[in-house]
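$ fold --in a.seq
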Amino acid sequence: MKKQNIAIIGVVAFILAVAVGYALFSDTLTISGTATAKGDFDVEFTSVGEIKKVGYTETNDSHGDGTEANIAVISADKNTLTITVNKLDYPGAYVEIPVTITNKGSIPAKLKNIKETNVTGGNTVTNNTGSIAIDSLDITYTGVAASDATIDTNATQSMIITVKWNEDKETSVENAQFKIELEYEQVTATTAGA
């Protein structure tokens, strides 16, 4: 019986030693906290530069005083640009409209898509090249529209919108009008490398 008591005391002592050893080498780490993120996403049209006109005729005296109607007008919220081309005189005639875009938000952005809406004055055909055609007119974009460049906070980018009478077409379109909206996305690790 004496040997049995010694064995039981030995087993209990061993278990206590293992428990104390485990307690010495183990610990619980608890991390708590709160993270918040805030940012403004605001990319807008800020100015229209000097418009180059080759073979362009103004057919609408919208002011009633003999002055030209505006070819490019930025909306009040600065998110839409309305383009009005009254008449191109011959195949190959065009207008080039330089536009400045500014990131007024606090988040870097990247151009995702150019969206044309409210097209009047002809039938619209969308091309895979980032341009549209309104019957005999071709509308193309160069500058920011042709790149994957990021527009940082308070930075500007330029683009040129060209509306041209397609030289392969015989009939012109008068009073063509459309609106342009630029769709941007937030720059993240995924979009920065894309």
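$ fold --in b.seq
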Amino acid sequence: MSDAVLAGLKVVEISAFIAAPLGGMALAQLGADVVRIDQAGGGLDLHRWPVTDSGESLYWQGLNKGKRSVFLDLRSPEGQQAAQDLIVEAGMVLTNMPAKAWLSYEALRRRRADLIMLAIRGTHDNRGAVDYTVQARTGLPFLTGPARPDAPVNQLLPAWDALSAMTAAFGLLAAERRRRETGEGQLIELSLEDVALWMMGNLGYIAEIQMLNRERRAEGNDLYGAFGRDFATLDGRRVMVAALTPRQWTALCAATGLGEAFGHLEKAMQADFATDADRWRCRQAIAAVLAPWVAERTLADVASAFDAHRVLWGPYQTVRELVETDPACSEANPLFARVHHPGVGAYLTPGSPLQFAGADPADVRPSPEPGGDTRAVIAERLGLSGAELDRLVGGEADGSAGRPQDAPAQDASSSRTNLVP
């Protein structure tokens, strides 16, 4: 990875769950040397579901690829001192743990004035939050799923965690650029809830209430403000069809041969289907014309017609179908490689989705053995060896303490619990 985009960048990560580990991994997959430090024996997320029969967390592996893993007794003065030493040596730390006492910016900055620290927290006023609780507060669950105002539905994808992770990585790189220009360090604070509110504001949800006094409602799979919804095929599959531009609408008319029927509908409803507004206003009537056309054809027939005319569409499929039959989720896609992970074996693993022109395909690296890099990192970064190293890391250095014989029982939904203690 010596020729990777971020080669030479050092980051210490003290984290758990999604936002901070994902942000650190995004940097590691571009070549940064990211050292994750956990409490000896394993951090809070070491056994998050999904787990293998032997207790190995595929969740933990997925969020820590390309990093080095160090276990220290962070409850002891010696472990805290060693963690501080590693942070000071690297000059950059990413955390979603409470940045207090030995992990406070003030304490660390006294030892290195140009230190960069990015601290992720739950809310702007420092209350705990996870993706699900932030989702609930945004109001979006009332717009998701069936049109039932008494039954909010959270989305499964931890979108605010993911966006916070990428924002954190961006923030660290921005601060590092400033440090190169000015020599100054930086404390950056990032709230999971603020990331959600930032995006809500960017997409017009806040202004829509304040300026238009208009509140959206759940519309199932209808695409707000344009035309798009799901339809059933003859062979029991479902497809999502959308038209956000005049060209896409023209393509849909050409693929289905329904241009004349839609023209009559336009006249009857005094509409112009070249506009988003009228396609949205007349969406039920448009769908009533399109649904029988889709229902009379198999998925293969629909795909053939839509692809020939470059219609904006996609088939609904299960995760199993994605993994087992979709070429996008295979080694045919340069994003993926089949990589061997410690304790589990080889499986399809994504690298960074960023593709730099002229660069070789991403070097998709495995997750580390939990705690398995402790001795190497301490020796390399702090220069300790022999008895000093033994006293500091003891028997925890090989990561064996992170692999209990029996993984704790968990509800599968717990893998969605995120940050901030």
